[in-house]
Automatic annotation (TrEMBL):
Presence of the UniProt keyword DNA-binding in the record: yes
Descriptive protein name: TFIIE beta domain-containing protein
The organism of origin for this protein: Cladophialophora immunda
Gene Ontology terms: biological process: transcription initiation at RNA polymerase II promoter
Biased amino acid composition, Basic residues: 199-209
Chain residue ranges for the region called Disordered: 181-211
Length: 232
């Protein structure tokens, strides 16, 4: 049998222990950033008939090995470990302000440790403290970047009315002005010259043959004019 094959755990001490650890991680995620003691997790996950010492130790070992969990030996408690330790609006703004480049952050990564992050994003966006991109289908936030409320300059309604009263040229007048400047419209076909220009013939360059073995020209006789006799 291959050494890479791990047989399923069938002993009573190991039945569903990995599944129980998954449930425990989910419980820690729900209570984050609160810690949960080991005894409370055991009570929440393991049924009474399966709380023997062997099963409990196996369960705690599997849970402690999970990368999404941290264990505090002094308090004998567990804490969920999200990808980013962001749990409120202040920590989100601080995280974005510390970015050297405006990379932003995906909202899905924030939800790992902050379930109701969407409400805070809506509020910060209304305060011009976040720039947000949203999904077209459900309008849920997808990405967020830092924003500066001091750059937001509200405009008086009087200025907006004056701006909207500025007349714009009609489409026909715009096309006429463009044609005067030798610009064609987008839908106008390109002009093609009907008279074909004669093609210029390329001059052939004569290249002389290169003679090799020049230093041996006087050593041999030329028999090229003498043809051998053909015997019948």
């Amino acid at each position: 049998m291959s050494s890479f094959y791990a047989p399923p755990v069938t002993d009573p001490a190991g039945i569903d222990v990995r599944t129980n650890a998954v449930y425990a991680v989910g419980r820690l995620r729900e209570k984050f950033p609160e810690r949960i003691s080991a005894s409370d997790l055991i009570t929440f996950v393991l049924p009474v008939q399966r709380r023997d010492e062997t099963t409990v130790q196996h369960f705690l070992a599997v849970l402690n090995a999970n990368s999404k969990v941290t264990y505090d030996k002094e308090t004998d408690s567990f804490l969920f470990k999200p990808e980013h330790n962001i749990t409120d609006a202040d920590s989100l703004l601080q995280f974005l302000q510390k970015q050297e480049t405006a990379m932003g952050i995906q909202v899905s990564k924030l939800k790992d440790g902050w379930a109701d992050v969407a409400d805070a994003i809506d509020k910060l966006e209304a305060e011009h403290r976040l720039l947000v991109t949203r999904n077209k289908k459900d309008h849920h936030p997808r990405m967020v970047w830092i924003d500066d409320p001091t750059l937001h300059a509200p405009l008086d309604q009087e200025f907006k009315d004056l701006w909207n009263q500025i007349p714009l040229p009609s489409v026909e007048d715009t096309i006429k002005e463009l044609r005067k400047m030798n610009h064609k419209s987008t839908g106008e076909p390109a002009r093609t010259d009907l008279t074909a220009k004669p093609k210029k013939e390329k001059r052939k360059v004569r290249r002389g043959q290169k003679i090799t073995n020049v230093h041996m020209q006087g050593l041999f006789r030329d028999y090229s004019e003498k043809k051998p006799e053909i015997k019948k």
